[in-house]
Specification:
The complex is a heterodimer of chains A (717) and B (426). With 717 residues, chain A is an alpha+beta fold. In chain A, a hairpin with a 4-residue loop joins β19 and β20. Chain A is flat and about 135 Å long. Chain B has 426 residues and is an alpha+beta fold. Chain B is 30% helix and 29% strand. In chain B, α7 packs antiparallel against α8. The longest helix of chain B has 25 residues. Chain B is elongated, with a radius of gyration of 29 Å. Classes of the chains: A alpha+beta (717), B alpha+beta (426). The interface between A and B is large, with 66 and 55 residues.
């Protein structure tokens, strides 16, 4: 085959080098998605990160795997997986480690076509699994980079096969047959790539990839959504542990050191930011039984739990909780209890799942700690410090398993607070809060006073500082000692307003515990926060004076990045049938609006032009009109010339060369003017040069600009 | 040797062969072709393609099963990659045209070269990774079957399916040519197919398909080649030996001419100008057309020579191998005599005598030899009836001397007779 080529071509060895490079990049890209998974695979991750780049640089080492090693790989990997599964009893982490092991093998040994395909499939699986489990924004970047890399990789594989068609290829495991390309240096490859590259092809390739992204976005938006009756299976294959420490119990140990985790745990889109109070309490769990130094949910409360299997919506007990919907995005690893402000009319989750709901305490929980982000939409949720009791009078007054001396101490302290008078629960709470604040400071690191007896009573009897759970627990026990039902509530308090996308960011460090005391007269549970520095719910008027959104508005780069995360959650992760319908309606409305605006603008312009034309004409207006029209014409002609020249340079038009065209035009002009060459020697010379420009070979052309200038000058005479 | 365009006829074929393709473009045709591709076109998934489809199905069912948008994103990316693959493949094929250029002469047992010319009329996009499936099918049947209506194996004898398939395979030569390098926009490539024709006759060269795995190897796309050309394969040259009386020259007779250079007024041939040729002999029109100087050659005034008369009655040539030997022998003898300037005329059966004045006449005779078959009694009579017009010529032929005829020589051989006297055998 003989071919004339202008640009050089990559030879087979260079294509193999490029393929090797891209394969390694794919292995690294996919392996680096593992840290986002909560899977213990750091040793393997480090091995990939070290070995694969090393083999990328020295493929000749990868070619030296002995044949017996290749034979041993498969049984070894299977054995590793079996042992791993047996020891950990967790399928997904074992699968991830297996995939990493295979990636190490494929990334460090020479690959044939099927091995390349295996590399792509393994990498894709790893990234998709990581994306499904973490729903992280990083997934978007990773999958796009992986797709681009994999497409080029497959293209190179196809080119290698086309170039190598019918030839013998390297067979892994035969070390005596080390291909020559493995010893080739890398620097010349990049120089060759630069020489081979055609910017137009590269630009088209980039545009096509952007087209792929656009088409996939379009497909994503237009995929018909309908819900089937099964929930995600992957999250059942991995065991999750909560990061914030929320659990069914609050234990008061001897010493506690709370570390502040400032990562965002919850994002909330609120219906009306102007009506947000300065202090918001996100209730998650209610603990009403005190037993052996810890608070937990009593059997009475647990019996009121209603269990829902595979549901995605709940009906609450609230009616008229205000218009609009709250949309919550609860990060994975926070808790299985869903944060809520209070009661609700409806609660709808993004996907069907198993739920436990206690409509008495207004606590909703998932069956297990979620492995992925949980998004839910709540309507009819009032912001109030009181929670109407569903079953009035039902509340726990018991001091639990406390010893008699501790009970007596508690009663003594309660008597100290109310001064022997029988106060209502709310009034007692106010005094107790003040009493606690007077005796105890706030600290994250505490040491309970040593000694026998109940830890809470020991702390109450001492001046030691405490944290929210101690204050809440102490107030509950004091209320009960005074004869009022009370309970501990755990959740989050407050949050930062993100002004970029207008939502609340609640951090793990906002985790909090407070109390609810039962008010007999109001037949409602009244929120009381005894922790020093907190706004007491009893001063609700003050709390509502300054909306949260105005008070704390984060405008940092971190907030900006977090707003991107919310966009990802809102438009991608939480995209459902309703969002699809809303998007389509928005597109329709936007199109109609644009059409209406354009037609209105056109009508306005026509009216203005008509009015301007119908006005009396004078010299100034005529000159103005001429200048504008002339300018427009000039612009049009110039634009046409520029476009034509550009297209001619690109080879998009096959018409005559612009120089030849101009020479022909000037020749015609001279002929039309009837200029006689006999009478003018200069004209004869110009004409000859114009003819040469018009018909002659390019190599014989004179300087065209000078000839055209002379020709125009002569033609004007 | 002659070539003629086949059924599809056009010189160039391929997506870029039509300059103004958009005039014939219809959306309905395009959409229908996507649903139901035309017969020679096919799209079949490769192993990676099947893997991609299985992966898409798995991710798709998981996405619908769970409503997880991450899976929907992965699914949409996979599907859009499939769409990109189709678009790139279409861009790769578009603007390409190809044609088959057979070599100057094809002979049995000799290497034959068929060139596939490939031209890209794209603006700037290169073309990669194509393959071309070529077929050469001998359309001629055995020496007995066409005219006599008998099978090669004889009347009453039935062939098994396996034998028929083997015969078909034998009559067909296949090859796959690869475009290994990049074909840039506006450039040409020549792929060459070299093979050895096994049988004389009419050989149909077909570009049965143009395929590609470009760009990602998901799908094997095949377009119909759209090219078919028929070429004639001349008989193989054979060794022969002279026997008895040699081919003796005869006295020249009026009207006899030989195909060699002379000084008569009859144009014999054109050849390239060589130093020393008279300028008056330059054929200016042909020179202008060919772009090089060409001179005229005239035939000799008179010469001694021979007339070849090939008669192929089926009752004489009963063995196919012997018949093939006969045809090869005649072809070899004709060439040798022509080279020696002694071939005056050639006749096949009852056809009109054909004066061999130049190379073109010899080639025409060779073309006849390539497709000659045994004639039966009935056909022989019919052809005789039909060729009454040429009887006068044949009568004149019979009056000639130095007529070379052929007859079986034993069970396998063939002998040549000059005026009834055995002269050579093969």
């Amino acid at each position: 085959m003989s071919m004339e080529k202008k640009r050089p071509q990559l030879n087979l060895d260079e294509l193999h080098q490029l393929k090797w490079l891209l394969g390694g990049a794919l292995a690294l890209l996919s392996a680096w998605s593992v840290p986002y998974l909560d899977v213990n695979a750091w040793p393997l991750m480090l091995t990939v990160t070290v070995l694969v780049p090393l083999m990328l640089l020295r493929p000749d080492w990868a070619a030296r795997w002995p044949a017996w090693a290749h034979w041993l790989v498969f049984p070894s990997v299977v054995l590793f997986f079996a042992v791993d599964l047996y020891l950990t009893k967790e399928v997904l982490p074992a699968f991830v480690r297996l995939t990493l092991l295979l990636l190490i093998y494929r990334g460090t040994s020479l690959r044939q076509r099927r091995d390349d395909l295996q590399l792509i499939v393994l990498g894709l699986l790893l990234i998709v699994v990581a994306g499904v489990l973490t729903v992280s924004l990083t997934f978007a970047a990773q999958i796009l980079a992986f797709t681009a890399c994999a497409l080029v990789f497959m293209l190179i594989i196809t080119l290698v096969e086309a170039k190598d068609a019918g030839e013998k290829t390297f067979k892994s495991g035969k070390s005596e047959n080390v291909p020559a390309w493995t010893r080739a240096p890398w620097r010349p490859l990049f120089a060759r790539l630069h020489a081979v590259m055609d910017w137009r092809v590269a630009a088209l390739g980039t545009a096509l990839f952007l087209g792929v992204v656009g088409v996939s976005a379009l497909l994503f938006l237009t995929f018909p959504r309908f819900e089937l009756a099964n929930s995600l299976f992957l999250d059942r294959l991995v065991t999750r542990h909560t990061h914030s420490g929320f659990s069914d119990t609050i234990h008061f140990g001897d010493a506690t050191d709370i570390t502040l985790d400032t990562s965002v745990a919850l994002r909330v889109e609120v219906p009306d930011p102007a009506k947000l109070p300065a202090e918001l309490y996100w209730r998650m769990i209610v603990l009403d039984e005190y037993h052996d130094g810890e608070f937990r949910a009593s059997a009475l409360l647990r019996n009121q739990d209603e269990v829902y299997f595979n549901e995605n919506s709940l009906l609450g007990t609230e009616r008229g909780g205000g218009p609009g919907a709250w949309i919550f995005y609860l990060e994975p690893g926070v808790s299985r209890y869903l944060p809520l402000v209070g009661g609700f009319a409806t609660l709808r989750l993004g996907a069907r799942t198993d739920l436990r709901a206690n409509l008495t305490t207004r606590v909703v929980a998932l069956r297990s700690d979620p492995a992925t982000l949980v998004a839910y939409r709540v309507t009819g949720m009032p912001i109030a410090a009181t929670l109407p009791a569903v079953t009035p009078g039902m509340g726990v007054r018991s001091l639990g398993t406390m010893g008699e001396s501790d009970r007596a101490a508690l009663r003594r302290l309660a008597g100290e607070i109310d001064g022997g008078a029988h106060l209502g629960a709310t009034e007692f709470a106010r005094r107790a809060t003040a009493w606690l604040a007077k005796r105890h400071g706030y600290a994250l690191q505490i040491h309970l006073p040593p000694g026998a007896g109940d830890p809470l009573v020991r702390w109450l009897s001492s001046p030691a500082p405490g944290y929210c759970e101690l204050f809440a627990g102490a107030l509950v026990m004091l209320e009960r000692a005074a004869g009022h039902p009370a309970r501990v509530v755990a959740g989050f308090e407050g949050g930062d307003w993100n002004g970029f996308e207008n939502y609340l960011m609640v951090r793990n460090s906002d985790a909090h515990a407070w109390c609810e005391v039962y008010d007999d007269t109001a037949r409602a549970w009244q929120r009381v926060d005894p922790t020093p520095g907190a706004t007491s719910a009893i001063d609700e008027a003050a709390a509502l004076a300054e909306p949260l959104a105005r008070r704390v508005s984060a405008r940092s780069w971190a907030a900006r990045f977090d707003s991107l995360r919310l966009l990802w959650y809102r438009h991608i992760v939480n995209f459902d049938q309703r969002s699809q319908r809303e998007t389509l309606l928005a597109v329709k409305d936007a199109t109609q609006q644009i059409g209406l605006r354009l037609s209105a603008a056109a009508a306005r312009m026509v009216a203005e032009v008509r009015a301007w034309l119908s006005a009396p004409w004078n010299g100034r207006r005529t000159a103005k009109f001429s200048v504008v029209a002339g300018g427009a014409m000039l612009l049009l002609v110039a634009a046409r010339r520029v476009r034509w020249r550009w297209r001619w340079r690109l080879g998009a038009t096959r018409r005559v060369d612009p120089v030849r065209r101009e020479a022909g035009r000037l020749l015609r002009r001279i002929a039309n003017r009837g200029l006689r060459t006999e009478a003018n020697a200069d004209l004869a010379g110009v004409r000859a040069e114009l003819q040469r420009l018009r018909y002659g070979a390019c190599e014989t052309w004179p300087a065209s600009g000078a000839v055209f200038r002379r020709a125009r000058r002569l033609a004007r005479r | 040797m002659t070539t003629k365009a086949g059924v599809m006829g056009a010189d160039w074929a391929g997506p870029g062969s039509s300059v103004r393709w958009w005039r014939d473009f219809k959306w309905s045709t395009l959409l229908w072709s996507l649903v139901f591709p035309a017969r020679p076109e096919s799209i079949a998934p490769t192993l990676p393609g099947l893997l991609l489809i299985a992966l898409s199905l798995g991710i798709g069912s998981a996405a619908y099963n769970t409503g997880n948008n991450i899976l929907f994103i992965a699914l949409s990316l996979l599907l859009s990659c499939l769409i990109l693959s189709g678009v790139l493949s279409w861009l790769n094929f578009s603007g390409l045209r190809w044609r088959l250029v057979p070599g100057p002469a094809l002979r049995v047992g000799h290497d034959a070269a068929v060139a596939l010319e490939l031209r890209s009329v794209k603006k700037f996009l290169p073309t990669y990774g194509l393959w071309f499936d070529l077929r050469a099918v001998n359309t001629s049947s055995g020496p007995h079957s066409i005219s006599s209506g008998q099978a090669d194996s004889g009347p009453g004898e039935k062939k098994s399916v396996r034998e028929i398939l083997a015969a078909v395979d034998k009559a067909e030569t296949r090859a796959r040519l690869f475009l290994r390098d990049r074909l840039d926009a506006g450039e040409e490539a020549h792929l060459e197919w070299i093979f050895q024709p096994a049988r004389r006759g009419v050989l149909r060269l077909e570009l049965s398909g143009v395929g590609s795995l470009f760009p990602f190897g998901f799908l094997r796309k095949t377009l119909g080649g759209g090219l078919r050309r028929e070429v004639v394969v001349w008989p193989a040259p054979v060794e022969y030996r002279g026997e008895g009386t040699s081919v003796a020259p005869r006295r020249p007779q009026a009207g006899d001419r030989v195909a060699r250079v002379g000084s008569s007024s009859d144009l014999l041939a054109l050849r390239r100008y060589e130093a020393g040729d008279s300028h008056r002999l330059i054929h200016w029109k042909a020179s202008a057309r060919l772009g090089k100087l060409v001179v005229r050659q005239f035939a000799a005034e008179s010469a001694e020579g021979f007339t070849l008369w090939l008669r192929t009655p089926a009752e004489i040539w009963t063995r196919a191998e012997q018949f093939e030997l006969l045809v090869s022998f005649v072809a070899t003898l004709a060439e040798d005599l022509f080279r020696a300037g002694k071939l005056l005329c050639a006749v096949v059966n009852d056809g009109p005598p054909m004066a061999v004045r130049g190379v073109r006449d010899l080639e025409e005779f060779m073309d006849q030899l390539a497709v000659v078959v045994c004639v039966g009694e009935v056909e022989s009579r019919e052809s005789r009836a039909e060729s009454k017009k040429s009887e006068a010529g044949n009568a004149a032929l019979l009056e000639r001397r130095n007529i070379i005829t052929f007859a079986p020589d034993g069970a396998r051989g063939v002998a040549a007779y000059v005026d009834g006297e055995k002269t050579a055998a093969a």
